[in-house]
Design brief:
About 75% of the residues lie in helices and about 0% in strands. The protein is mostly helical.
């Protein structure tokens, strides 16, 4: 148990909290957009499908670009793309798929940058990335709820801008010791293609649960909030638990 609580005191743990807020803002931004766009679309099922495909599938390519241009701040670039997407959709008469594509690419940029910064500054621990990942679930449900209220798009646009100082501050934690060399969790006995297939299967199941699986109990705002709150806590705690069991 002491290992679990000590994880919260890990060196550079602030990086995790900084990017938890950034991730929170990213998901509010994306799900507010998708909720608004879905209400105005004759093809309701297509928008979430396009969002999932464009926001997550290209992250390997984005990661490669990030490695090619290490001095570029992909987090700030990603938030700028998301802000641009909002301006295009809410202020100009363009096809929803143009700003949606830009929004998704921006989402991918921020995810890749957040993963890099939290991992490189965690000295082989998982707590930092756990906190970063956990922040997103709270943004998902809040974005969906806020989209049904009177909150205007420009309020979300301003929220996007508030995340940029958090990204810049997190980058100040880099040092000569910042690397991923202390991570040794890879099981080299498992074929790489099998890992990709398993990860793809997990994403498919996750998408099915999120969009297709009947959840008759999930009918009130309170139940929906509870679901995503538990998801957020679970995402964070699973890595803390992994770290404790591993050590």
């Amino acid at each position: 148990m002491s290992k679990f609580f000590n994880a919260f005191k890990s060196k550079n743990i602030a990086v995790g909290w900084l990017f938890a807020y950034v991730h929170f803002v990213v998901e509010i931004t994306c799900f507010y957009f998708v909720a608004k766009a879905t209400n105005n679309s004759p093809v309701v099922w297509l928008l979430p499908l396009v969002y999932d495909g464009l926001a997550f599938a290209p992250q390997a390519i984005i990661g490669w670009l990030n490695d090619k241009f290490p001095k570029a701040n992909f987090g700030v670039i990603g938030m700028a793309l998301m802000a641009l997407a909002y301006l295009l959709y809410f202020t100009f008469n363009v096809s929803v798929y143009i700003p949606l594509t830009i929004l998704c690419i921006g989402n991918g940029f921020v995810h890749v940058h957040g993963a890099e910064v939290t991992l490189k500054n965690s000295y082989g621990k998982l707590a930092h990335s756990a906190i970063f990942v956990g922040g997103g679930s709270f943004g998902v449900i809040l974005g969906r709820l806020v989209a049904t209220t009177f909150v205007p798009y420009w309020a979300i646009w301003l929220l996007i801008l508030t995340s940029i100082p958090f990204i810049l501050l997190a980058n100040t934690y880099y040092s000569e010791e910042s690397s991923c060399e202390k991570f040794n969790y890879a099981n080299t006995k498992i074929a790489p293609y099998l890992i990709v297939l398993l990860a793809t299967f997990v994403v498919i199941v996750r998408g099915y649960v999120g969009y297709a699986l009947p959840t008759s109990w999930n009918t009130t705002i309170g139940q929906t909030v509870a679901l995503f709150f538990i998801m957020g806590i679970g995402k964070a705690l699973r890595r803390f638990t992994c770290r404790c069991l591993w050590c």
